[in-house]
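Hypothesis: this fold can be encoded by more than one sequence.
Test: take the structure tokens below, design a sequence, compare later.
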């Protein structure tokens, strides 16, 4: 019996996918549930498992765009599983080369490539090496005329590799590029900046991180502090948690926080649902779960759909400052950056503190300067006073939940 394998729908509104890579070859025997292909949609890269065991016949090439529901391969379920991999007979091709008489060798002497005194002076003035000139004089000597006609090199290749590669972008990458360009063209995007003294968070992590990890099985990182600070600020400034829909503003009474995660196929933005209901442990556990799924290529479209606000951390790559691009249709994105010890004034004295620059990019069509600056100041206040603002003056209890 021949089974026709069709492209399943990766998610709502997706009508087409691209065959990113076949993980098997035409004529291979595949086992049921064995991954046979990677398919790209405009939101994620997903594995396509074999629906049954048997001999596979491929019906699409890598790079082909195929509609959801179309047949991409056939599986002969009646075929017996081969006991071993049969050895293919190698074809031996005998090539008869016609011998050609060898070209006479060009004899070189001490004069070959040597510049005459007059030629050497001209070449020195032009900063040209004699080895870059083919002499026309006797025995290859470089003459004054050769030096006069020589043109200084402008970026002459020096023998290094100069290969190029032309590779089609994946459907996911093409869609990301399209969305980023549309954001720049279709929104009134502005960015506001501030700085955060991270010492209070450093002190908390130093005191509680070992107990936190032992109790909950995850590390106490920065994302839980930033996520909970953002949740609080979004409640204070709900316009930042809104989005445009034509002539309408859509407001949310929940905080679904998208987090930018670097995966093998590029940037992924999975969503922490209802972050307003999570504790420090809840946020850290969810961040770890989503990061692992993105790294292993198991993230689903549903896990990346939605989101009312985004947090991105360029600091893990060493970024000092940036203007993050809004993740549409959202209206705001917070950029975290690296932490550097800097001199700052505290109570009239100069002290060294671990400082992070933070950036909020926002859509000025829906968010005014008061809301954008107030939001970022609220995030700063929570991060610099986490015990009072985020932990209700009881850090031990907050981290045990």
């Amino acid at each position: 019996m021949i089974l026709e394998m069709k492209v399943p729908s990766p998610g709502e509104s997706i009508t087409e996918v691209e065959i990113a890579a076949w993980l098997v070859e035409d004529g291979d025997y595949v086992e049921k549930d064995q991954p046979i292909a990677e398919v790209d949609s405009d939101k994620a890269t997903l594995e396509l498992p074999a629906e049954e065991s048997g001999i596979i016949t491929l019906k699409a090439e890598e790079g082909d765009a195929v509609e959801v529901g179309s047949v991409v391969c056939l599986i002969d379920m009646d075929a017996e599983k081969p006991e071993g991999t049969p050895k293919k007979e190698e074809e031996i091709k005998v090539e008869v080369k016609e011998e050609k008489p060898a070209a006479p060798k060009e004899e070189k002497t001490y004069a070959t490539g040597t510049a005459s005194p007059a030629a050497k002076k001209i070449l020195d003035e032009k900063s040209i090496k004699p080895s870059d000139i083919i002499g026309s004089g006797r025995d290859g000597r470089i003459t004054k005329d050769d030096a006069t006609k020589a043109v200084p090199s402008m970026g002459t290749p020096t023998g290094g590799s100069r290969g190029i590669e032309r590779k089609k972008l994946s459907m996911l990458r093409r869609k990301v590029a399209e969305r980023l360009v549309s954001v720049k063209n279709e929104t009134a995007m502005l960015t506001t900046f501030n700085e955060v003294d991270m010492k209070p968070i450093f002190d908390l992590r130093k005191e509680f991180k070992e107990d936190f990890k032992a109790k909950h099985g995850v590390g106490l990182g920065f994302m839980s502090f930033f996520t909970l600070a953002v949740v609080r600020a979004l409640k204070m400034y709900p316009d930042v948690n809104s989005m445009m829909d034509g002539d309408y503003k859509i407001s949310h009474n929940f905080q679904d926080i998208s987090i930018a995660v670097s995966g093998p196929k590029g940037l992924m933005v999975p969503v922490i649902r209802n972050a307003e209901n999570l504790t420090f442990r809840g946020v850290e556990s969810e961040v770890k779960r989503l990061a692992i799924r993105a790294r292993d290529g198991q993230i689903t479209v549903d896990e990346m759909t939605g989101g009312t606000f985004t947090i991105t951390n360029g600091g893990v790559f060493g970024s000092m400052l940036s203007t993050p691009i809004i993740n549409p249709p959202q209206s705001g994105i917070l950029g975290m950056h690296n932490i550097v010890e800097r001199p700052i004034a505290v109570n009239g004295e100069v002290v060294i503190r671990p400082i992070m620059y933070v950036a909020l990019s926002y859509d000025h069509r829906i968010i005014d300067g008061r809301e954008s600056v107030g939001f970022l100041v609220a995030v700063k206040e929570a991060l610099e006073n986490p015990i009072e603002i985020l932990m209700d003056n009881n850090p031990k209890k907050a981290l045990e939940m």
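The two ends are 55 Å apart (CA to CA). Residues 86-98 have pLDDT under 50 and may be disordered.
Hypothesis status: open.
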